[in-house]
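Moderator note: this is an archived Q&A kept for reference. The question asked for a predicted structure of one protein chain; the sequence and the answer are reproduced below.
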Amino acid sequence: MLKTRYVVASVSLLIVIFVAVMFFLPNFQIDKATKGNTYTESVFDQSKVTNVDITVDDEDLTSILENPTEKEIINADVTIDGETVKNVGFRTKGNLSLNSVVQMEDSDRYSWKIDFDYYQEDQDLHGLKKLALNNNYSDPTYMREYLSYTLMEKMGIATPGHSYMYVTINGKEWGLYLGVEAIEETFLDTHFSDGTGDLYYPDGTGSDLKWISDDIDDYTGMNLKTNDNSDQSALIKLLNVINNGGDLDEVMDVDEMLRYFAANTALVNLDHYQGDKKHNYYLYEENGIFSILPWDYNMSFGGYSVGGGGKGPVVGQETANEGEDKAVAQKDPASVNEDSSPAKAKLPEGAPNKNGGGDMSANFMNEDNINFSITEPVSGTTLEDRPLLNALLTNDEYREKYNEYLNDIAVDYFSEENMKAMTKEISTLITPFVEKDPTKFYSMDEYTEATSGEKTLVNFATQRADSILAQLSGDLVVEADTQSSMGSAAPNMEKENGAAMQPPNMGNGEGGAPIQPPNMGDGENGIAMQPPGMNRDLDSRGGINSSYSKETIILSSALLLLLFGAIAFAHSFRRRGRKG
């Protein structure tokens, strides 16, 4: 029989272990990105172009190519760099880009979506559940979306994994795509301390975040993507505060929002909340605090022109639930996602194809885009009609911080040295794949001109940086373009004395005094890329993560029960020993 001293020693050891675990566990929280989910490195390896081979039934493929706007989900096997996942969901995705490709007589280069867990709920690829394959529509450089997500990462924004992928379907080359992680539960678990909050994809009634009422049913376009049974009271509180007044810090991660809008404004990304369509963003609420998440940047760098996108085709403003993908919803309501569009929607008759005169990328370096207002950073609407942004920028303290982040972007990320280095690295990686891409929207001459000619993303960024710095200094005043009709008006530029002012010198100081950026310290290649106070070890609200996660609470509870059980056993053992 066990001796009492052994039992006492065992219980004492359990107590020591329990205390140690409770004391040290918060300091040894396993990073969500590495806790069984390695896809950020294994799937989205940015040092190479990943091979994605998709195998589907020939009849199923014919069906979705003949009816792409129905977004029919078919069964597929997907092999990514030699690793095969069988029995996954596969369909077309997109809205404007999808319908634009539909109008092309010579192209089936659709964007695609892969749902690894569509047929088997527990199936994934290194933790990744859903993968978007974006077709780089209206982007002869193949770089707009990639560079935009990179900026968001540099600004400390939770950003989906992304890398270049070369796609084949049934052995046929489909071309060079950008693979992007879907924003859903796995993404939230990777980037946030808890990851179980309410996720929204606003698109439709209420997506401008204007106050309607305290009845959540009136906000039909907010599109809750997680927690179907949530009462969404936190969203109503957010809407009330930003529209009717209150403490913004109680309902949102203010600093994260400021970094996000500074980056989006610098990128002149207007197919977005800041534009006339008021979509292409996510809101995520955790413990009552909202963050904003980036999505869909193929129209950044001025690709969707100032003035409501007047330089490109317009399908029409969606209302209420028109954006819901009914064809997909009938099969699986949970699979309706951010890229939904009315089945069989068509562009207007005569809409431009890939090289038509209405190419949305053609005039990206026009004066309106370069000098897009940082003071009233909206297009096709007014700042008052975008209450989330308005609430932030009407606060002097927050406006000053927003301006600081814009300054950081202008002198760091958008510097000629940095942009040249990044675009050269990307070009070296992808050019061989662009050359062999049989479905590309642009010729190799157009790709070469877009990446090394007079109108490149490098030139856009450097000129945009000069304009941002001139606006910050007060040397350039630009009014927002609130037009929502076709076409766009030139910004109103004048000095404080009312005299007309020419746009700032966009060169290296020739013909005018150069704008000298402040010394931002030593970062990569001499550039300090991380904004002040940004630290990837911080939690989603910018502070050190000292809270206990759900996993910590469960583990601690189990240890506590075990401890109580051991004490009870020891007490019972000692009583039995005395009776003997």
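Archived answer notes: Residues 198 and 285 are 5 Å apart (CA to CA).
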